[in-house]
Write a structure and sequence with these properties.
141 residues, alpha+beta, STM4215-like, 6-stranded mixed sheet, Phage_tail_terminator
Length: 141
């Protein structure tokens, strides 16, 4: 299951608050710009259901590296801003509601974690369902 559209939605949300900040959606080895945000996942727990749907709780993390590491002012302002405004964000799959939002600062690095609920319906005309049905018919015949 590919949840990259969630990363893109989070990045777009951050960009709306901080248009000049650099946002990374993939790991980089070195040379990150400052200030910068990193967007990633820390977990994805799924539950399959009989009604042709699946539900996932996707754990997301935003890591912020400030420009000024000599004072707490910048990092505290970003923490307050994210905690205040990060309630919902838009993705190509629709609006995502943020749950379990927390923020902490360690060694002048801000870490914001939260979860979003993703419900997926496997419709009969979905290409994945059609491919699975075709494989089943081939095995039976």
């Amino acid at each position: 299951m590919d949840f990259d559209y969630i990363k893109q939605g989070i990045a777009d949300f951050i960009k709306s608050l901080y248009p000049d900040a650099t946002i990374y959606e993939d790991a980089i080895q070195q040379g990150a710009a400052s200030p910068s945000f990193f967007v990633d996942f820390f977990s994805a727990d799924g539950t399959a259901r009989l009604a042709e749907t699946s539900s996932f709780a996707v754990g997301c993390v935003i890591t912020y590296y400030p420009k000024d590491i000599r004072t707490n002012d910048e990092i505290n302002a970003v923490r307050f801003n994210l905690l205040q405004h990060l309630r919902r964000f838009y993705t190509p799959a629709g609006w995502m509601t943020v749950k379990n939002l927390t923020a902490s600062v360690t060694d002048m690095i801000l870490t914001v974690t939260f979860t979003v609920q993703v419900d997926i319906s496997m419709l009969p005309d979905d290409p994945l369902i059609q491919a699975a049905q075709q494989k089943t018919e081939l095995k039976e015949g």
